[in-house]
Amino acid sequence: MSLHEKRREARCLTTGEVRVKFTDPVPLEIDGKLMDVSANGFRMSHDCTVLHSGQVVDFAYIEAKGRAQVMWTRILAGGVETGFLVMGR
Fold it and tell me: Could you tell me if residue 1 is inside a domain?
């Protein structure tokens, strides 16, 4: 593992649609694209800037569904990326 690499699990690049939903602070559904998945998490690209660390969401994509916690969100010039930790695995 690289000295700069902080990930604890291997990631597999992937593609596909993903939807996350939450009700706090207001009900919202976000559709995005999967970027990679791991045994206990996933990363998606989307266009919503309101996701924040610690927030709990419901998620669904072709291979999995459940609840996840937002670990980080990165706002870029071309969109937004968010990393999630799947809860209950």
Answer: no
In contact, 19 and 30? CB cutoff 8 Å: yes
46's tokens:
């989307």
> Cis peptide leading into 27, omega within 30 of 0?
no
Q: Give the count of beta carbons closer than 10 Å to the beta carbon of residue 12.
A: 10
Report how far apart, in Å, the C-alpha atoms of 69 and of each of 1, 7, 40, 78 are: 25, 16, 11, 23
Residues of the chain with pLDDT below 50 are 1-4
Rounded to 5 degrees, what angle do the CA atoms 36, 71, 42 make? 15
Q: Is residue 8 included in any domain, yes or no?
A: no
CB atoms within 10 A of CB 64: 13
